[in-house]
Design a protein that fits this description.
Shape: globular
Radius of gyration: 19 Å
Helix content: 10-25%
Largest sheet: 8 strands, antiparallel, barrel
Distance between the termini: 57 Å
Structural class: mainly beta
Amino acid sequence: MDTLEPTERKIPDIVYRAAIGALILFVGLLVGISTAHAVELVPSIGITRTSTDNAEGKTFYGFAFRGNLFPMFKHETAIGYHSEEVTDPTGTISLKMNTVPMTESIWFAPIPLVYAGVGVGMYFSSLTYENVPVPDSQERKFGYHIGGGLNFPIAPMIGVDLQSRYVFMDEVPTSLPQGNLDPEFWSTSVGIAIKF
């Protein structure tokens, strides 16, 4: 059985703090810009599927703040939550990973119903082990995504939002015999877009 060597953080804390600070500054600027434009609040629920999943997806919860940035462009600030469990091949060690993504996206919307684009974010994960004396740990990873969706009205100030995205991230080190965990995932969600 292969054992994992303890990994050292390759990027200093100052880089993580700078990345979070830059993300907060960017969000603040976009929120300021959007105050004069239409704004949407989008609570959503969906499913995610990672490379470690078998046939079933996991539930994903999200909340997004979306506004017009320029003609045909929207920005979106979002936070979400999803959880997954991984078991080693012997079935004796299991790992639960809870992830909270905080993301910023730029969507190109050539027509009001359709949008597509890219984004970045910080992904905060907590790792909890069962049946093994390994302490719980926390990870934070930078990631980026591509995706798109449909947003169609069902009432004057309410719409339905369908979105799908793929998230790219570096592997998360674990104490499982099979090694690191690949946290990349697809997410597909449906939400209610409340317009202001």
